[in-house]
Design brief:
With 117 residues, this protein is of the alpha+beta class. The protein is built from two helices and six strands.
């Protein structure tokens, strides 16, 4: 009986030790240099499964939301129901992430420096 109680207690302790809650905080880019923006675009294109993306208006060094514009209209199109895809910039620990608003999927922005808001 004592062995079961000890085993249960140790199991709970080890499981609790494996779960660490790293805070997730809104973030902005440290800089908007060409290199940084190229890296952000490449990561977002990978996250969306496309070859390249165009970012919407806004300053990612001052606001934590980034918009990816839908592809341009084709030659014979006059309108499109497509809407921009929104991403929130986040810091999880020291790493910078983009979280897709509609799915909640997070993509680490490796090589991109962010700062917490």
């Amino acid at each position: 009986m004592i062995h079961r109680v000890l085993a249960s207690g140790l199991s709970a302790l080890f499981l609790g030790a494996c779960q660490h809650n790293t805070p997730t905080v809104p973030a902005v880019l440290v800089d908007a240099s060409e290199e940084t923006m190229a890296a952000v675009k490449a990561h977002l294109a990978d996250a969306m499964g496309v070859g390249m993306v165009t970012l919407g208006a806004g300053d990612p060094t001052g606001q934590s939301q980034v918009s990816v514009l839908p592809p341009p209209l084709g030659e014979h199109e006059t309108r499109s129901p497509a809407a921009p895809t929104q991403f929130n910039l986040l810091m999880i620990g020291e790493a910078c992430y983009a979280e897709r608003v509609d799915t909640g999927e997070k993509t680490e922005l490796t090589g991109v420096r962010c700062r917490a808001l």
